[in-house]
Design brief:
Two copies of one chain form a homodimer. Chain A is 71% helix and 0% strand. Chain A has 195 residues and is mostly helical. Chain A has two domains: 1-52, Homeodomain-like (Arc Repressor Mutant, subunit A, Orthogonal Bundle); 54-192, Tetracycline Repressor, domain 2 (Orthogonal Bundle), CATH 1.10.357. Chain A is elongated and about 60 Å long. The termini of chain A are far apart. At the A-B interface, helix 7 and helix 8 of A face helix 7 and helix 8 of B.
Chain lengths: 195, 195
DNA sequence: GCTTGATCTGAACGCGCGTTCAGTTACTGT
DNA sequence: ACAGTAACTGAACGCGCGTTCAGATCAAGC
């Protein structure tokens, strides 16, 4: 039997990506089988190949899609203004965006080594693009004298590492709310780049 | 044929762990097969089971061994003194220790999800122990008024995230030397917990 | 020189892997 | 009513997986 009712292409396609995202995040790309994905989608394994040419592309599409969205979301959120304000906006945007998409972010940082070289290069390019927007802010602030950092590229890496750290432990309903955590982290970041 | 010459137990055992460490770090636990490990060690797959009961235990032993060493290394490196000095010692120790063992650290942070529940709990316990030593320093500094942090547990997590970040990009022979990077990171950390 | 035990091989076990494809079903357009 | 096509099944392909184990080999102790 096939296709129990109605057209499914518009449903099954996204569902495949959703399920793959969740399973890859939980168990890791290498540990998840196509049959396992198919089972949770509710189809046989063969049907997955109507929506992706292979498993590797499935992973790559998830990563590139994430980075595309991240870049355009920040482009929209960036209101300009003085560097200090832009940095705060960046920090809060980054934490909020990441906390809202834990699975996506987990994959983006953990499954890099499972990308084939070409795919890895493209993902890295997009990541550098995002990092560059933070470096821009730090450069602008240093030029104005409001930030004191010996090396903005290094500071950008340190800042992103710190902000990313939130995603590894924060859980809704814990000791502190998301807003409090955001403020505390922002405060630490602010001081770290100031005199 | 078996055992070409001399006794090998003292050689093969550590070699298995070394190879497993390197391969797990490069390709991920799930993506590395026992046959692949055996090939690089120079034995047949069956021989590995003289040195580990199974693949999972091999991973767990690497992790627990790492954390045991980390804890005792810090216990030895911690010279006490005023909180600011202890924090600097911690930061520099942490970066140096991690940069010296990139493969070990990579596994310790990436393969947690591949640990069975009991093993995970033990690893988490040891990690919390290490984090607690940083929290102690921050608490002491706050009590003396030299650190201004609203939440020492949060600050400890933020600090460790930031310091860990170094390991994801630093390569010997790059734009900056290890000493410079250490100093810049320490400076950012120092400011982030100060008024 | 013989036995003992440590060390390792080589083959095998059942199983699941990613992927392909001929065939089947259910809907759509005419 | 019928053809066409989108969506999917179910079986199969060759292959590698983790693990076990009987047997081979060599070093050491008596």
């Amino acid at each position: 039997m096939a296709r129990k009712q109605g057209s499914h292409a518009g449903i099954t396609g996204p569902k495949v990506r959703d399920v793959a995202l969740r399973l890859f995040a939980r168990y890791g790309y290498a540990a998840v089988s196509m049959r396992q994905i198919a089972r949770e989608v509710g189809v046989q394994a063969g049907a997955l190949y109507l929506y992706t040419p292979d498993k590797q592309t499935l992973l790559f599409d998830l990563m590139r899609g994430h980075l595309d969205e991240l870049l355009s979301a920040w482009a929209e959120a960036d209101k300009g203004g003085p560097p200090a304000a832009r940095l705060e906006a960046f920090a809060r945007f980054h934490m909020r965006y990441h906390l809202d998409r834990p699975d996506t972010i987990f994959i983006a940082y953990m499954e890099l080594r499972n990308l084939e070289p070409d795919n890895f290069a493209e993902v890295e390019r997009l990541r550098d693009l995002y990092e560059a927007s933070l470096i821009d802010i730090l450069d602008a602030g240093r030029a104005e004298g409001v930030f004191q950092v010996p090396d903005t590229r290094l500071a950008a890496k340190a800042a992103i590492s710190m902000l990313n750290g939130v995603t590894t432990w924060f859980r809704e309903g814990g000791r502190l709310g998301q807003g409090e955590v955001e403020s505390i982290y922002w405060d630490m970041l602010r001081k770290s780049v100031s005199g």
